[in-house]
Amino acid sequence: MALDDGLFILVDWNFLLLIMGGCVAASWLLIRLSSVSDSEEIVSLAEKVAILGFPVGVISLLMIGAAFYLDSQPVGLPASFDLITLICFGVLGLVLILRPIKNFRFGTFLSLGLGLLGAAILVFLGTNQIKIMAGVFIIIFLVIYGSIKMVEDLYLLIAEILSNPMISVTVGVICIIQGLLQILGFSLANFLFFI
What's the whole-model pTM score? Predict the structure, then answer.
């Protein structure tokens, strides 16, 4: 029951994470504004804030999991956690996580690692012929890389779209507005759907 109480408190205070994540996502705007005024302090501050992006993005996506878990429990979700908040956390988490790792080619490393693992298994099984181990490595590498390449291209497309500075700033501002409205007891759903 202590887990439910802790998650309930975390999800109940979700407006703080929305505001903080929105500020991190909109930090590009600070860098852009500081280039107009030639202020090195603002650039330094924005770069320090942007370092928080990946951890805040992970926590944002974990918040979605906590919300689904609490929704299935008798304690339920707090009244402040609605569909708009769930969407904000999902998009904010993706924006903040995909920005620093958008150039990471996971398909190449995964297929290389699994190809080497297949060759290592042959060594442990007692095969000492280099041609057989090289053949197994090449076959595993090509099959896995070919099947993951399409997923990797889709991932890179989504990462490129979400790491666009204007999209990042827009998501950040929406999250800040949603967080501030939650402090006041409202939500963007009140204004979008006239609830």
Answer: 0.74
